[in-house]
Amino acid sequence: MSQSDCLVVIPARWASVRFPGKVLAPLGPRSVLEWVWRSAKAADLGPVLVATDDERVAAAARRFGGDAVMTRSSCASGTDRVREAASRRKAKLILNCQGDLPFIKPRTLRRVVDILRRRPSGRRTPAADIATAVIPLFERRRLENPNVVKAALAEDGRALYFSRSPIPYPGRADGAFPPLYEHLGIYAFTKKSLDRFTALKPSRLERAERLEQLRALEAGMTIRAALAPGETPIAIDVPADLAKARRHLERKR
Fold it and tell me: Are the C-beta atoms of residues 188 and 116 closer than 8 Å to each other?
């Protein structure tokens, strides 16, 4: 596939329950959303769209040079918003790059999309229905934090489960520890898998964990994860996260 076959969509709604307007919150010299957009552009995967249901967000995106599209306010999730925006463009691959990850690295976005660009020997179809990213998880406080999503992976990177609880069980009597991973909330889809996923009803495990990717696993879809060491796992969910992001930015200067 050529680079023009990929579309990057940044879902960016204003009405976040825990932090309204967070995507336009100032973070150093630019907004949270502009940080994400710059990383998506630097990844050089294809066109980048900001998908929103609020004209304030669309206007801000256009001011910094972004291409913004308006979507329905009734979209149930960011993935539904991505699908609506992507339905207006022709693309074989769609990357959902969430608008609250200001420090996501371009190389991580490329690694995720590369999973779907690969064709296993003898196959015409991608190695997975959906691709995502994880980072090594070492801190006990993050392992036990329910706001940090953990991933259990097979050796080939295939996702077995995602949970807010610590998984897999971190230890054995002989001292051998399984790898522990933290999930980063970015996803690449083929057009077919995005259409299929958004047509599914929320699943039992999804509702229990409040993690929409479990809907795909319950439906038998394959998710593979790229390992992205060196990522800064700061997602802006609440105002305290913004303060943390500002401290991180100051340390980098």
Answer: yes
pLDDT in tens, 19-57: 999 999 999 999 999 999 999 999 999 999 999 999 999
Cross-strand pairs, 131: 188, 224
Cα separation of 166 and 187, whole Å? 22
Computed on alpha carbons and rounded to an integer, the radius of gyration of the chain in Å comes to 18
Integer Cα distance of 118 and 113 in angstroms: 9
- The pTM score is 0.92
Separation CA 111–CA 228 (nearest Å): 8
Tokens, residue 82:
């991505």
SS3 content of the chain, % helix, strand, coil (to 5): 35, 20, 45
30 phi-psi bin (left φ>0, alpha ψ -120 to 50, beta other): beta
